[in-house]
Amino acid sequence: MTARTEITRGTAAALDAARAQGRAALVVYLPVGYPDVDGSIAAAQAAVAAGADIVELGLPYSDPGMDGVVIQEAAQAALDGGTRITDVLRAVREVAATGAPTLVMTYYNPVLRYGVARFAADLAAAGGAGLITPDLIPDEAGEWIAAADAHDLDKVFLVAPSSTTERLHLTAAACRGFVYAASTMGVTGTRATVGAKAEGLVAATRAAGGERVCVGLGVSTGEQAAQVAGYADGVIVGSALVRTLIDAGADREAGLAALREKVAELAAGVRAAAPHPAEERRA
Amino acid sequence: MSMEAGSEAARTLREVAGPYFGDFGGRFVPEALIAALDDLSAAWEKAKGDPEFTSRLAALHRDYTGRPSPITEVPQFAAHAGGVRIFLKREDLNHTGSHKINNVLGQALLTQLVGKTRVIAETGAGQHGVATATAAALFGLDCTIYMGEEDTRRQALNVARMRLLGAEVVPVSTGSRTLKDAINEAFRDWVANVETTNYIFGTVAGPHPFPAMVRDLQKIIGEEARGQLLERIGRLPDAAVACVGGGSNAIGLFHAFLDDAEVRLIGCEAAGDGVATGRHAATITAGDPGVLHGAKTMVLQDEDGQTVESHSISAGLDYPGVGPEHSWLASIGRAEYVPVTDAEAMSAFELLCRTEGIIPAIESAHALAGALRLGEELVAGGADPAQTVLLVNLSGRGDKDVSTAAEWFSLVDEDERAGE
User: Which of B342, B209, B198 is nearest to B279 (CA)?
Assistant: First the structure.
């Protein structure tokens, strides 16, 4: 990877840059505070160096209803270790400095409690790209949308295989940056196969006006990344990366090495995919 | 989102149908659940106006649950409340031993109506789990119950009951290992299996339509009690008192009186070791507005919005959130929410046992303690005891709590037990 020198805050530019190279972007998720705050910052920076295009930093939350066991374990450890919202904002600042657009992924209550407008202002000041909100649908997000718009932050809402056409339109219109397509009906975690409905969901989301669509949930291998990269603008990987850190236990260097290796495998995956229809459409 | 008209359209407090109750309520859930919640809302709106559905439910209430539950005047107990008159609404006499069956039978019928074959539920004390397992057995539905690992230990008897009824009980070992974590796990299951599975939510919390739907299914408590009191004494009570965890028995009692301004509505929250100690579950008393388990409501949380672990001797009240309608009723001053400590509740528990021969659930004992305090306050304030009537919801019976009570009151001789 060539070192980036310019900070590109929004995710759309990074997705478009990847597309211009004839590939999908690799989006990585890592929770702030695992194994500790500095360790999570180092992990995210290592992921960027190993080929990640966009970073999602997880804000650890006590009741992560959409997360599977791996991310839950890391988030709980982060909370037990005393990770605070201010730590997340510091992590954003340091990871965004790599040049990779850096989003925060969070359940809504911590943002609500911090103050929605204050959170948006502080996130923007830290160089953050925006927010992914797994439990905040556009219908309930008026306050966040206004605050995000005031600071030019990305608003990434989710669509699911169960979303109706009406809701795909509503969600696509509310998103800025990209639309997060959940590949399967379920929680985060690695799976043997990526949900069969993901490709159709991406197509339907594009038809509903979603300009950029990234797919998450269940991707853990380079092969799966290549498969998803064949039809999506971005491939989102979380649990498989967190797993490398958990498996390494106290050996931080081994964890970072395993993380780099996994990110490199996934980065190669998104480059191995055949150009997909969206690229031809935009060409 | 296809939501029915909210608070704005309501002419009376009773008519507020969600998804919002004032500033509280809504749907703060993953997009994956929205279609299921929309389907459930539509099915419920249709079912509650469908004579076939309502008559089937009424027949179940009558023939299976044993409704109407009676009201019982408890003068010997009330003598300790300044001598006011106290009537108990006897939800403890329902089949399965609590008010939970009212809600579960309705939601199980609805599960059949929407063509799903599996139900899941969360449970704290186990009463909702037992009721759900019961309805699943009755209707031939597969059933999985999520229960915090800590609660499976505290409520081992109810775990056995659920298993006898054919349900799978899944102990949840994440977080605080109590009710809130069981709810998280049940939501995860629902997201993954929503095509076949209905989530029979146990209280008036959660995303719309659960707060309104569970309220609609529990309002029979207050409606019956209102009619029974009018028939018995020709007037409404001065206050209706109920315990509040998530708040389903309380809203069930309160709802019939919401538009009767002369009836005070009093919710008794679990103050555990005392609100000042931080070891409590008094959500409205000591919480702040937030989002938990799919709704905007009062939440026990720290300054970063992380949920604070609650504490109560009663597993059924050990919950750091509360139904959004309660948050709203508190915010507009229509209902009052008061903290009751473990010690006060256990004292009232013992008093009801000794004076009236009724062993209440420890949850309900919080309401009994609230009534004792209220009676004394009213009389001290000049009220005529003979003309002062309190209605208390005895939401459940105490069988499940006997071992907790035995420990609290040191009724089991450890040497004796060791020698068995």
Answer: B342
Testing the interface with B: which of A135, A166, A179, A188 to mutate, by most B Cβ within 10 A? Answer: A135
Active site residue B73: no
- B377-410: per-residue pLDDT in tens? 999 999 999 999 999 999 999 999 999 999 999 9
A 97-156 residues inside an 8 A Cβ radius of B: 107-114, 134-137, 139-140
Q: Is B365 helix (H, G, I), strand (E, B) or coil?
A: helix
Global ipTM: 0.93
Q: Which two tokens stand for residue B127?
A: 């009463």
Strand pairing of B288-292 and B295-299?
A: antiparallel
Pairwise CB contact (< 8 Å): B27 & A157: no
* Structural tokens at position B137: 């057995």
Query: How close, in Å, is residue B377 to chain A by CA atoms?
Result: 37
Helix (H, G, I), strand (E, B), or coil: what is residue B183?
helix
Question: In which element (H, E) is residue B161 found?
Answer: helix B156-164
Based on the residue annotation, tell me whether A247 is a catalytic residue of this protein.
Answer: no
CA distance B419 to B378: 50
Residue of B nearest to A139 (CA): B1
Interface membership of A165 toward B (CB under 8 Å): no
State the pLDDT at residue B4: 41
Determine, for residues A63 and B292 on separate chains, whether the beta-carbon distance falls below 8 Å. Answer: yes
- B135 vs B137: CA distance, rounded Å: 5
Q: Residues with Cβ < 8 Å from B183, sequence gap 6 or more? A: B122, B146, B206, B293
Of B30, B184, B304, the CB nearest to A63: B184
Residue B207 · residue B28 · CB < 8 Å: yes
Mark which residues 292-311 of B lie under 8 Å from A by CB: 292-294, 299, 301, 303-307
pLDDT, tens digit (0-9, with 9 covering 90-100), for B75-113? 999 999 999 999 999 999 999 999 999 999 999 999 999
d(CA B380, CA B230) in angstroms, rounded, equals 26
* Mean pLDDT, residues A249-258 taken together: 96
